[in-house]
What we know:
The protein is an alpha+beta fold. Helices cover 17% and strands 41% of the residues. A hairpin with a 5-residue loop joins strand 5 and strand 6 (94-105). The longest helix is centred in the N-terminal third of the chain and has 20 residues, at 22-41.
Amino acid sequence: xxxxxxxxxxxxxxxxxxxxxxxxxxxxxxxxxxxxxxxxxxxxxxxxxxxxxxxxxxxxxxxxxxxxxxxxxxxxxxxxxxxxxxxxxxxxxxxxxxxxxxxxxxxxxxxxxxxxxxx
Length: 119
């Protein structure tokens, strides 16, 4: 697992419990994984196809710094698959894990197309 980006938790990203809102975290993960998919497939034409079970393990609070880690797990004919872990930068405590995130290369009409990339 390589950790690619870091985020500082700020007031506007908190839920009613004053911890990081899960939807904000999922948006960051989707964005980071999408950029990684674009880079690996050398195209901007990718869409999120699937996220497996999302396991919220610990919370993050205002002032914490988190880091988003991704590991490339496989290539399909039109897809690329990652696993993800988000952890606290300083304590290394895991905040969330996602076993499978799948992106698909698409054409201008949104149909899956082969990417011709392999491990």
